[in-house]
Amino acid sequence: MSSSDKPLVKKLLHTRMRVNDLDRTIRFYRDILGLRVSRTFTSPRGSRIAYLWIPGSDVELEITEFEASGPVNVPPDLVHLAFEVANMDETIDRLASLNVPVTDGPTHTGHSIFAFIDAPEGYEIELIQTLHTAPAPPALPGGEELELGSIGPDSSPEILSELSKSHDRWVRETVAGHPATPPEALLTLSMDPDPLVREVAAQNPFLPEEAFQVLSRDPKEVIRSVLAKNISLSEEIARTLLSDPSPWVRESLAWNEALPVGILDILHKDEHPVVRSAATFTLSEKNRPAK
Hints:
By secondary structure, the chain is an alpha/beta fold.
């Protein structure tokens, strides 16, 4: 390997998150998740900083508090940390005893079980139990086994339909984004228990209208935001998203140049400034004379 082919970096050392209340955040990661505080100090500019050691890893979590930077507001579904657990049932029981609710899951994928909990200040935590027994891949009626490698640009709707039932999340994600996936399979994937599968489905411009309707009511804000940018969004679904309580969903809608001008005009008068700004730009682009 030549020097130009070598990775520029060696390994991940730490990841940093800024918070409003350092002490509260330390208590969560230390007392709930079992991370250990390795060091705390105050930086020359006045930031309070704590490094937490993560079991089984060389990576540390850096938590900082700096009031002079203003309040921290973490948008929903922006970022999460994923930790492995030994036993999901025992983990959920332990969380319940500590009055920590599970916000999503537990979800079984075949290779793993995962669940989400909320950390302080809008950050999310994913907990994953890895299963050591992988399920058999789906098969066609003739007995031919299918797997992720079976999917390609020329995959038939029959194969994609079978793979949409896979226990493997990665397979379902790939099928959810494929242009040849049959409408009935896309509808099923739009209701998949795994939010990452639904998020990929929301980007697919070949979704049937019923899948658009399902995803427009998805409890995950990030999925509705992704759907709002879909170029095949009908006017009916766009009008549903117009009344979405999240300004981030409405902002995503306002960036969609495929929308009718009438929808963009409504977004241009939205109560939230980021929505109005996005709609202003999109309207200007739609009105720009073609070269």
